[in-house]
Design a protein that fits this description.
alpha+beta; Alpha-Beta Plaits; two-stranded antiparallel ribbon; 2 helices
């Protein structure tokens, strides 16, 4: 049998879970980004205000699930942009959630 593996069938092995947490790499949560939106490369279609989408956006649709009333796809569907700035606490929370789940870190808030 292979070290650290458990025989499940004649051809399949499954890794055994390690109990030593010091040997595992740290987990990276999606809201612990090492990247952030660039306020100097905002999409030109963004409506003026503190929330924006930058040019690194890819149309993954994650943000639309959270803030579909605030965001819109470009005509060629290559990116999204803010069509409306949040006006209520609920809309502000939606924009914040969209920012937190954005896999490319393309949604920003410059606090303006």
């Amino acid at each position: 049998m292979r070290p650290g593996k458990e025989l499940v069938s004649e051809r399949h092995f499954v890794s055994l879970a390690r109990t030593d947490t010091n040997t595992r790499p740290p987990l990276r949560c999606r809201n612990q980004k090492t990247f952030m939106a660039d306020k100097n490369s905002k999409q030109p279609e963004n409506i003026p205000g503190k929330w924006y989408v930058d040019t690194t956006c890819v149309p993954c649709n994650s943000c639309m699930d959270e803030a579909g009333s605030l965001l819109k796809y470009s005509e060629d569907q290559s990116h999204v942009f803010f069509v409306k700035q949040p006006a209520t606490p609920d809309e502000e929370a939606c924009a914040q959630r969209a920012s937190e789940i954005c896999p490319t870190g393309s949604i920003g808030n410059d606090g303006a």
